[in-house]
C-alpha cells in the first residue's frame, strides 16, 4: 500500500534537492578559479582588443589549461615586475607575460615546461632575395639599442660580414628604414617580428637565431600546480593545440624542434 507524500516528506525532498544542487552529485568536483596574473598590454601574448576583451596567445593557452583542469580562470592585470611577488605571496596562482625561464628566477619561483622559444630573427624585404644571415654579407643590419639582437650583431658582425650596424629605439623606426632601403635586414625578437609581418607580405622573417630563451608559466616555488599544468601542456603539445595557437597569433607554423611542439622537462634550479 502506497501513501501520498505529506508536507514533512515534501520538505525533506526539497532540502535534499537543494543540497544536491549546492554540492553537486556524489563524487563531483566543484570548479575552482585559477587566478592568473598577466601584464595586460603585452602584444600578442595578452592585451585588450577593440571590444575591451582580454585576448592573446597566452590568454588562449591558459583558458585551455584551466578547462582541462576542470577550473574556471580569471586574469588579473599586474605590472611585469609585480608578477614575481604576486605568485610568491599567493595573490595569484600562476603568471604569464612572455616570462623567460632563468637560473636566477628558478631560485625563488617554479616554472612548468616551456612552450615558446624566444629567439632572435632576421627580417628582410620579401623582394630582396636575402634568405638568411649568409645573404647579409656586405650589407647593413638594424638592431634595437642594447638588445639581445644588438649583442648578437656586435659579437658576430665579423663572422656574418655586416658592412654596418645601425641602432634603433624600437621596432617601428627600424621597419620604416628597412622599407626605405636604409638597412638591408633587421635583427630582433622573433615573436615581435612574426606578429608584425603576418599581415604585411612585403616583409619576411627568413632566419631564426637561437638564444636559448624560453617562455613558460610561472608559479610559487614548488607549487603543486606545477606538475598539473605541466601535464596539461604535454597533452596540448601532443594534440597540436599549442602549434595551432602559434599559427593563429604569428601567422606561421612553429618549427618542430621548438618547445612549442616538442615536449620538454620541468625546469630545475
Keywords:
single chain; 269 residues; alpha/beta; D-Maltodextrin-Binding Protein, domain 2; 2 domains; five-stranded mixed beta sheet; three-stranded parallel beta sheet; 14 strands; ligand-gated monoatomic ion channel activity; Iontro_rcpt_C
Per-chain topology:
Elements: H1 7-23, E1 33-38, E2 47-48, E3 54-55, H2 57-69, E4 72-77, H3 83-89, E5 94-96, H4 103-106, E6 109-111, E7 116-117, E8 120-125, E9 140-144, H5 148-160, E10 164-168, H6 171-180, E11 185-189, H7 190-197, E12 203-209, E13 214-215, E14 218-220, H8 225-238, H9 241-250
Parallel strand pairs: 1-4, 1-5, 9-10, 9-11
Antiparallel strand pairs: 2-3, 6-14, 7-13, 8-11, 8-12
Q: What does this protein look like?
A:
The protein has 269 residues and is α/β, with parallel strands linked by helices. The chain folds into 2 domains: 122 residues, Periplasmic binding protein-like II (D-Maltodextrin-Binding Protein, domain 2), CATH 3.40.190.10; 90 residues, D-Maltodextrin-Binding Protein, domain 2, CATH 3.40.190.10. The chain has 9 helices and 14 strands. The strands form 5 sheets. A 5-stranded mixed beta sheet has the order 10-9-11-8-12, with helices on both faces. Strands 4-1-5 form a 3-stranded parallel beta sheet, with helices on both faces. The radius of gyration is 25 Å and the shape is elongated.
Amino acid at each position: 500500500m502506497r501513501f501520498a507524500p505529506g508536507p514533512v516528506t515534501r520538505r525533506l525532498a526539497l532540502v535534499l534537492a537543494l543540497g544536491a544542487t549546492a554540492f553537486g552529485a556524489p563524487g563531483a568536483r566543484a570548479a575552482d578559479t585559477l587566478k592568473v596574473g598577466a601584464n595586460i598590454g603585452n602584444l600578442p601574448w595578452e592585451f585588450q582588443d577593440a571590444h575591451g576583451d582580454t585576448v592573446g596567445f597566452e590568454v588562449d593557452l591558459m583558458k585551455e589549461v584551466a578547462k582541462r583542469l576542470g577550473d574556471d580562470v580569471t586574469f588579473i592585470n599586474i605590472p611585469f615586475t609585480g608578477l614575481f611577488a604576486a605568485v610568491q605571496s599567493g595573490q595569484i596562482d600562476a603568471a604569464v607575460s612572455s616570462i623567460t625561464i632563468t637560473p636566477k628566477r628558478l631560485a625563488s619561483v617554479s616554472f612548468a615546461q616551456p612552450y615558446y622559444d624566444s629567439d632572435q630573427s632576421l627580417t628582410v624585404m620579401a623582394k630582396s632575395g636575402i634568405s638568411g644571415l649568409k645573404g647579409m654579407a656586405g650589407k647593413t643590419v638594424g638592431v634595437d639599442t642594447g638588445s639581445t639582437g644588438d649583442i648578437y650583431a656586435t659579437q658576430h658582425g665579423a663572422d656574418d660580414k655586416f658592412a654596418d650596424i645601425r641602432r634603433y629605439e624600437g621596432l617601428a623606426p627600424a621597419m620604416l628604414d628597412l622599407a626605405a632601403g636604409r638597412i638591408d635586414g633587421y635583427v630582433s625578437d622573433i615573436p615581435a617580428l612574426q606578429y608584425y609581418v603576418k599581415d604585411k607580405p612585403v616583409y619576411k622573417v627568413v632566419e631564426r637565431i637561437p638564444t636559448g630563451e624560453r617562455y613558460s608559466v610561472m608559479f610559487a616555488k614548488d607549487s603543486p600546480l606545477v606538475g598539473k599544468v605541466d601535464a596539461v601542456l604535454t597533452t596540448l603539445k601532443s594534440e597540436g593545440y599549442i602549434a595551432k595557437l602559434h599559427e593563429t597569433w604569428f601567422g606561421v607554423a612553429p618549427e618542430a624542434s621548438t618547445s612549442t611542439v616538442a615536449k620538454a622537462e620541468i625546469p630545475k634550479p
